[in-house]
Fold:
Amino acid sequence: MQDFNTIINNIHNNLKDNVVKGVVASYIPELSKQDVNQFGIFIQHMNGENFSVGDAEVPFSIQSISKVLSLSKAIAFENNDIWKRVDVEPSGNPFNHLSLLELENGIPRNPLINAGAIVIADILCSQFKNPKQEFLQYVRAIANDQSIDYNLKVAASEKETGFNNLAAANLLKSFGNLNNDVDVVMDFYFHQCALEMTCSQVAKAFYVFANKGRCVNNKQHISSSQAKRINAIMLTCGFYDESGEFAFEVGLPGKSGVGGGIVALLPNQYVITTWAPGLNAKGNSLIGMQALEQFTTQTNLSIF
Ligand SMILES: NC(=O)CC[C@H](N)C(=O)O
Structure:
């Protein structure tokens, strides 16, 4: 077993004083308050060990990382039916891009861009009686942590300025690809994105995808084939128009969020989360991507 502690400590040390750290998201006003110098890394190994450095226990806004968790619950409910409403192709476009949605008759390219995640949110609004509560319970269960919660200020902040997402939802509705009211679906979507978790909680939640659908408590939440498909979607679509670059540099299925978090995993081996709020031009954590590139290069532990 390699010395993960030394490796991540060295990476953290090398990158923490980088002068170029990227820019914190400001289109959600509450996120612009984040300190660009925060930086944490956490690894949950499947042999039970874990490794941590820096701000790995500081809660952050997981934003689009939540799209994988909502997707897994929608797949558990509806299995293959969801692919009638959302595709599985990389979009090659930014996460909030709209024109492709119109060209392609209201079928989003994949569930990890905003329009696709809004369709998934609609599925959960139909399946759950109390979507916000029951989704939170699901996330707490797979992460084995009852302390996880929504940050209501972030949810309200995104709602106030979420014009682009409302446009996506209205476009979906106009194409008949949204069954619930736009307001109901968007209220749920803004809350799911406003889940606040630490690097260690995110790594524990994503263990289910590295472990063939069984969570840290060994409970089966999705089938092994469903976990395999979710990993394929993360690999091809998890970083929007930087998904190719992430596969090229890091070589793991993963997902980013505009709160600056990134989670990535090597099936049957480990889950790694980084958090550094400064983003690059594509909306992915600048330091987080560099840290993960260095980690898989130094350990030679990627899927390729
Ligand atoms: N890339 C992201 O993390 C985007 C999520 C954000 N809540 C949005 O919908 O715009």
About this structure: The chain has one domain: 4-299. Strands lie at 40-45, 50-54, 60-61, 149-150, 195-197, 254-256, 261-266, 270-275. Residues 235 and 253 are 4 Å apart (CA to CA).
